[in-house]
Amino acid sequence: MITGTHFKLNRTTAAMLAFALTGASLTTAHGEDGKPGFFKKIFGGGSKAETQPPPPAQVKPAPKAAQKTTATETGRPPRVIITTTGRGSKRTVELNKSATSVPAKKAPPRSKPKSESIQDVTKSVAKDNEGPMKGEFKEDDDDKPSTSKSEAVSVLPSKDGWEIVKIGGRDYVTADSIRNFYNPVYGFTTFRLQGNHFWLGSSKLVLKAQVGSQEMLINNIKFILSFPVQSHNGKVLFSRLDLCKLIDPVLYPSHIQNAEHFDTVVIDAGHGGHDAGARGIYGHEKDFALKMAMSVGAACKARGFKVVYTRSTDMFLTLGGRVSIANQTPKSIFLSFHFNSGGSAASGIETWALTPQSAAATISRGGGFNVNGVTGNKQDSANIALATAVHASVISRFKFVDRGIKRAQWSVLTGCKRPGILFEGGFVTNAKECLLVASDTYRQQVSAAIGDAVVNYRKALESAMAKR
Q1: What average pLDDT does the structure give for the chain?
Q2: pTM of this structure
Q3: Domains of the chain by start residue, with CATH
Q4: Segment (H or E) for 352
Q5: Which of these ranges, 48-52, 195-199, 269-273, 439-443, has the smallest mean pLDDT?
Q6: Around Cβ 51, how many Cβ atoms within 10 Å?
C-alpha cells in the first residue's frame, strides 16, 4: 500500500491480450513477429511452465491480527491452489503438488499497418523537442477543458482520416477513426454499439467500453481511461489524450517515440525499517515487499538483466532516495512493489502508471489533476506500455481479480526519469490473498510472470529503441 505525505502511497480473453505489450509485437522493424514481444502477442501469459519451487514452510499469522482464518483454527495453512493459464496452455499449481502443462501453440505472424504512426492526429497538440515535455503529448491552451457552463459540441474537419469532435473544449476522436487506423494490423470484424456498450473486435483483439465510463477492456485486461467515453450523433468517442497516452502505446508499442534501450531493472521494495506499511494477517507489507523484490530480481537476472535494489534489507529509505537510485542508474527501468490493504473482502491486483499531464488521478488521494506535468511524464508512453506488459502477464496467468491499470502521481513515479510503474501484488488484509502473499510459491510464480513481462516489454519496443 502507498502511504506518506506525497501520495504514499472473466479471463480466457485476458490471456490473449494480457498485454498488447506482452505479445503482439506489433511488428518490429526487423519483422520478428514470431518472437514474444508485443506483450506476449497481445497479452499472452507466457510460454514454458516454471519449475515448481519447494513447498513453503508453515505460515503463522502475524501477532495481534484482527482477523482469523482456517489457518489459525487448524494450526496450519489451508491448501492453496494457484491456477495459471498461458497462450494455448493451462496449468494448475497446487501447493505441495507438481505443476502440469500443455505445450503452447505458436502464434501466427502479425501484419504491419500501412501507416507509420499517429503523429498526424497529435500534431496540433504535441511539438517534438520543445518545452518540458519533449516528445510527449502536450495540450494547447485551446484544447484544455472549457470553464464555460456551455458544453458545446463541434465537429472539426477530418485530418488525415482522423475525425475529431470537440466537447466542452476537449478533443475526442471517433471510434471509427481508431478502427480504420489499426485495422491493417488487427483486421477488425466487429464494430457495434448496443445501448451504451461498445465493442471493437477481431480474432486478435477485442476492445470493450461503455459510454459514460472510464473503464476499458482490451482482451479483458482492464484499463482506466483519463476521461469517460462519450458519444455524439451515434458515434462513440475517446478523448484524444487517451488515444495518445494509452490506446496507441498499448496497441502500437513499436512506435513509441522516445523509447530507450535498457539492460538494467531497478527494483524497489516499498516501505522498510520503521515504516511497516500495511499490517496483514500473516505479516507486514514491508517484509512481503522485500521478499517479492528479491524474487523478481532473481527472475530478471535469470533472463539476462542487471538488477539494482533500492533496498535489500529491512531499512528505511525516503521516497526521494528511491527515485534518485533509479535516475542514477543508466539504461534502466523502475519497478516498485507494494501490497494493498482494505476491507476483509477487498482483493485483486492493480498496477499504477503516472498520471498524464492534463488528466486526473484515478483515485482522490492519487495527486489530483496533473496540470503542468512532471518529470515522469516524459516517459508517459513507455510507462503505460511497461504497466500493460507486467499487469497483463500476471493477470493472464493467474485467476486474480483484475483491479486495472490505473493512474496516480505517486512520489516514486513523479520524479522518475526512467520508465517506471508501481505494482500492488494483492491485499494483505484479505485472509486468502495474504496466505498467497506469504507463500514462496506465489511469489516465485508471480516473479516469473513479471520477469517474462520485462522481456516482452523490451521486445515490443525493440524497433522503437533501435530508432534512438
Answers
A1: 78
A2: 0.76
A3: 1-127+254-468 (3.40.630.40), 128-253 (3.30.457.10)
A4: strand 349-354
A5: 48-52
A6: 9
